[in-house]
From TrEMBL:
Residue ranges of every copy of the SHSP domain listed in the record: 5-116
SUPFAM superfamilies attached to this UniProt entry: HSP20-like chaperones (SSF49764)
Family in the record: Belongs to the small heat shock protein (HSP20) family.
Protein name according to UniProt: Heat-shock protein Hsp20
Source species: Paraburkholderia monticola
Length: 116
């Protein structure tokens, strides 16, 4: 697997596991709404993009001492060892965790070339 590309402002923690026929990806996206998640697959490269919007409420007479919660967009891209069957891939978002089921593309029968 190739190294990931991270946005410096926010990082997305992921776990990737592999079985004989598929990859499984779990990505932590706390505070993100399902409608603000975009997953793209291009061959063996998976890209996850998300947007977080936080209210910056400041009440009269209050001042912010520290603000650590991120607001904005962040993304993560990584390459897998085999191409993904995009048509069979599935994504589910529950309790702040994005779960991807990414079946590997069948390599098909190998063709033997005769040497002349």
């Amino acid at each position: 697997m190739l190294p990931a590309q991270d946005n410096e402002l926010a990082s997305m923690k992921i776990d990737v596991t592999e079985s004989e026929g598929a990859y499984s990806v779990k990505a932590e996206l706390p505070g993100v709404e399902k409608k603000d998640i975009d997953v793209q697959i291009d061959g063996r490269v998976v890209s996850i993009n998300a947007k977080v919007e936080r209210n910056k409420e400041e009440k009269e007479g209050e001042r912010v001492i520290r603000r650590e919660r991120y607001s904005g967009t962040f993304s993560r891209s990584f390459a897998l060892g085999a191409e993904v069957d995009e048509a069979s891939a599935k994504a589910e978002y529950k309790d702040g965790v994005l779960s991807l089921s990414l079946p590997k593309k069948s390599t098909g029968d190998r063709k033997r070339l005769s040497v002349e």
